[in-house]
Design goal:
10 strands, hydrolase, alpha/beta, three-stranded antiparallel beta sheet, Rossmann fold, Glucosamine6P_isomerase, Glc/Gal-6P_isomerase, 31% helix, seven-stranded parallel beta sheet, EC 3.5.99.6, NagB/RpiA_transferase-like, binds 2-amino-2-deoxy-6-O-phosphono-alpha-D-glucopyranose
Length: 241
């Protein structure tokens, strides 16, 4: 893992955007793995700026989201399907039909998860995956205890993740308790990964991810098994390294 400690969110956004730009410019038709949550937003804004001002094009790119809540009504403002469009893909020249996510409204969530997992492989796999990390170390929605080899599947969110994400909803009771999430095994198949985090509440998860034992207790530590990971953190998130 390469760890880059940045002075502030703006510098972090430029570092992450640089990784994206290298892959998007060099690789021709590219498969991007996109994350939701607040951590990647500054990087997405920087990429939108580069698209508008510097002609960075995503016309040859397609995208797979990491995860989706189960049971939110279609178009719900907190669905990740909507989030990624509002915060990134509708502001660049990526074909909307090629921005894919698990269907959180599917009648059979396990079958939908398996279908989604297969579709990533059929697209040739992910060239670059961006990740955030939960304060309990979760990656996508792989909560502590998730198998390091797990595939896309229905998952039950922990109380701490529901509490963390309640800030996006009207109340804690409105946060779904289930999600469909790429597994740690799925995520680790991406050819390159960039993970970004800011703030002191991520410091322990970052330290366990980078320096702890590889363990399902801290799902981020699975990334130690990956050959090409860049971690971009501010000083607060890196403070326990
Ligand atoms: C959610 C997402 C994760 C994300 C995490 C951290 O649970 N499923 O992909 O990394 O939250 O979110 P934030 O970046 O808002 O701290």
């Amino acid at each position: 893992m390469e760890v880059i400690i940045v002075a502030d969110a703006a510098e972090g956004a430029r570092e992450v955007a640089d990784v994206f730009e290298r892959v998007v410019r060099d690789a021709g038709p590219v498969v991007l793995g996109l994350a939701t949550g607040s951590s990647p937003i500054a990087a997405y804004q920087e990429l939108i700026r580069r698209h508008r001002e510097e002609g960075l094009s995503f016309a040859d790119a397609r995208a797979f989201l990491l995860d989706e809540y189960v049971g939110l009504p279609a178009g719900h403002e907190q669905s990740y399907h909507r989030f990624i469009r509002e915060n990134f893909t509708s502001h660049i020249d990526m074909d909307d039909a090629l921005v894919l996510s698990p269907d959180g409204g599917a009648a059979d969530p396990a079958a939908e998860a398996a279908r989604y997992d297969r579709s990533i492989g059929e697209a040739g796999g992910v060239d670059l995956q961006i990740l955030g990390i939960g304060s309990n170390g979760h990656i996508a929605f792989n909560e502590p205890g998730s198998s390091l080899a797990s595939r896309t599947r229905p998952v039950v969110l922990t109380e701490s993740t529901i509490a963390d994400n309640a800030r996006f909803f009207a109340s804690r009771e409105d946060v779904p308790q289930l999600a469909l999430s790429q597994g740690l095994g799925t995520v680790r198949e991406a050819r390159e990964i960039v993970l970004t985090a800011t703030g002191e509440n991520k410091a322990r998860a970052i330290a366990q991810m980078v320096e702890g034992p590889v363990s399902a207790r801290w799902p981020g530590s699975a990334l130690q098994l990956h050959p090409k990971v860049t971690v971009v953190v501010d000083e607060a998130a890196g403070s326990e390294l």
